[in-house]
Design goal:
The chain is of the alpha+beta class and 233 residues long. 45% of the residues lie in helices and 14% in strands. The protein is elongated.
């Protein structure tokens, strides 16, 4: 084993177990003086030996060892890598289910993350999409609401009363400044924006979302009575 390989192994062995390692980022951070070919050959050899697991292109992890053998990385470990420290937010059915909008669940987990350098990546059953929006206590609720309203018609077994209750809670923490920022930096359908505006107007929340809409257009969105009659029933 050459000195480069020994050095690479010694550094990687200091990384926590069952934590995602992005090969390119790790190389730039710790191995800038090592020939790139030697680096990737060492990763390949470590994977064959079982000291590393190659999860998907460019992604590895050091498996946790137990007396029963290696413990695979968990779904939560993967999600945490892309969402911790305010770097990401879970969307899709995991979001709908967590907000009580449907009892349906999905094996596939969707995540928006600023920790991703490429546009999209699948890591096991976690689908990660790059998000260029700053994720804060104000912008995350806006993104969640927009994602829910944009996909409302496709959510299986959606509970309309639960959506009305969710939007009432969202309205209490709504930040128009954050909403405008999100809409200027992330693309959503005009009908989705109109849907959000309709909820906010119904709930008496001042907003400036009309700047993203045309007064000459009519948007195909549900009537508010559809939700609030259900909520009162």
């Amino acid at each position: 084993m050459n000195s480069y390989a020994k050095y690479i192994e010694s550094v990687i062995e200091q990384e926590p177990e069952n934590k995602l390692l992005e090969a390119s980022a790790l190389y730039e951070r710790s191995f800038g003086t090592v020939p790139e070919m030697s680096y990737y050959k060492t990763l390949e050899r470590m994977s064959k030996q079982g000291t590393l697991v190659h999860l998907t292109k460019g992604i590895y992890y050091r498996p946790k060892k137990s007396r029963f053998g290696s413990v695979p990385i968990s779904e939560n470990d993967i999600i945490s890598h892309y969402t911790s420290d305010g770097r990401g937010v879970v969307i899709g059915y995991r979001l709908y289910n967590r907000k009580g909008l449907t009892t349906q669940v999905s094996k596939r987990v969707e995540v928006l993350s600023s920790a991703l350098s490429e546009q999209k990546k699948n890591v096991s059953n976690v689908c990660v999409t790059n998000c260029s929006v700053d994720l804060t206590a104000d912008t995350i609720p806006v993104i969640e609401a927009l994602e829910i309203l944009q996909n409302y018609r496709s959510i299986e077994d959606v509970n309309k009363g639960a959506l009305a209750a969710y939007m009432a809670g969202f309205a209490k923490i709504y930040s128009d400044h954050a909403a405008v920022y999100v809409l200027k930096n992330r693309k959503y359908k005009k009908s989705t924006i109109a849907f959000l505006e309709s909820f906010l107007n119904h709930l008496g929340i001042e907003n400036t979302l009309n700047q993203f809409l045309s007064v000459l257009s009519s948007y195909a969105i549900p009537e508010m009575e559809e939700f609030y009659e259900t909520a009162r029933a």
